[in-house]
Every structure is written in C-alpha cells, then in structure tokens.
Amino acid sequence: LERTFIAIKPDGVQRGLIAGIISRFERKGYKLVAIKLIVPSKEFAQKHYHDLKERPFFNGLCDFLSSGPVLAMVWEGEGVIKYGRKLIGATDPQKSEPGTIRGDLAVVVGRNIIHGSDGPETAKDEIALWFQPSELV
Ligand code: ATP
Ligand code: MG
After folding, report:
1. pLDDT at 90
2. What are 48-88's pLDDT values in tens digits?
3. Strand partners, 116
4. CA-based angle 5:122:8, to the nearest 5?
5. Active site positions, annotated
6. How far apart are CA 5 and CA 67, in angstroms?
7. Pocket test for ligand 1, best of 112, 117, 125 (most atoms within 8 A of CB)
8. Which residues' Cβ are closer than 6 Å to ligand 1?
9. Are strands 70-76 and 31-38 parallel, antiparallel or unpaired?
C-alpha cells in the first residue's frame, strides 16, 4: 500500500497543532504506521531538503527545521501521497485554500507548519531517511 512521509515542523509542534493535524489524516481514513518526536540536526535537515540546496532560503529553512522538536510520521493508504499534499495545501499559506491545513493554520511560507512528500520517489527516500525499517508498523 502507498506510504508518505509527513512531518509537523517546529512551529506546528510549538503552537500545539499536533492533535488537530493527526486528526485530519485519521478522519480521512489514512493509517498511521510510524511516529516519533525528534530534534533533527542541521546536517540532517540539509539532507531532508537537499533538492533545495541552491535556493536562497535553504540555509534559513534548515536552521528552522533543526530549531526544535519535529513530529515525524509515515501515513499509509490509497492515494496518500497526492491526497496528503491536498490536505496540506499550497506551499505559500497566502495561496493555500481555506480548509487545508496551511490555509487554516498558517500565514507565511517560512512557517508553514507541515511537510509532505511530493511524489513516490521522495516518499520512499524520506521514509528511509527518517525511519529505520523496524520502526514502521
Ligand atoms: P515541504 O517540502 O515542506 O512539504 P513544499 O513541498 O510545499 O513544502 P518546497 O518547494 O518543497 O515546498 O519547499 C520546502 C519548504 O521551503 C517550504 O515548505 C517552505 O517552508 C520553504 N520555502 C519554500 N519556498 C520558500 C520561499 N520562497 N521563501 C522562504 N521559504 C520557502
Ligand atoms: Mg517539498
């Protein structure tokens, strides 16, 4: 079955949004197959966002991701990669639709509270980066 990597970023954890976000995925019908709270190192954040290393915001983005606890998760279900992105909403919360997680809960692109894998290849790579196979139920 399809799986995706979802992470609540330090701003989402700090703001107390964990339960509300998990609830959206659960109510939709997706299954939680792995979860842990970790503070990633900056080096780890750079690995996670390696595709963006040429972007001007890369350094600040990695500093931010490593600034506090991140709730790392793997969710499973039909279409979960694409539909997970739909639940999350557009990258820039000014453009995310109301009803999406970012649309409802965030204001600026640098503090958009949640990450979701953008395709099958990145889902596979990100799950392998954040979790040991034994941590997946
Ligand atoms: P994520 O990978 O976190 O799920 P995304 O796939 O919607 O987000 P990406 O293009 O992968 O968007 O960008 C990764 C993250 O980099 C964004 O979530 C955002 O926090 C940050 N980011 C993207 N564009 C900008 C920007 N123009 N200025 C500042 N930060 C940005
Ligand atoms: Mg992305």
Report:
1. 98
2. 999 999 999 999 999 999 999 999 999 999 999 999 999 99
3. 6
4. 30
5. 115
6. 20
7. 112
8. 52, 57, 61, 91, 109-110, 112, 115-116, 118
9. antiparallel
Which residue do the tokens 């963006």 mark? 52
- Cα separation, 62 vs 67, in Å, equals 9
Ordered alpha helix ranges (H), the chain: 10-14, 18-28, 42-48, 58-65, 80-88, 101-105, 120-130
Q: Which of 85, 91, 108 to mutate to test the pocket of ligand 1 (most atoms within 8 A of CB)?
A: 91
Ranges of the chain with pLDDT below 70: none
pLDDT of 78 reads 98
Neighbours of 81 (CB within 10 A): 21
pLDDT at 14: 98
Q: Is the ipTM value over 0.85, yes or no?
A: yes
- The residue to which tokens 């694409």 are assigned: 82
Burial of 16 (0-12, 13-18, 19+ CB in 10 A): exposed
pLDDT of residue 102: 98
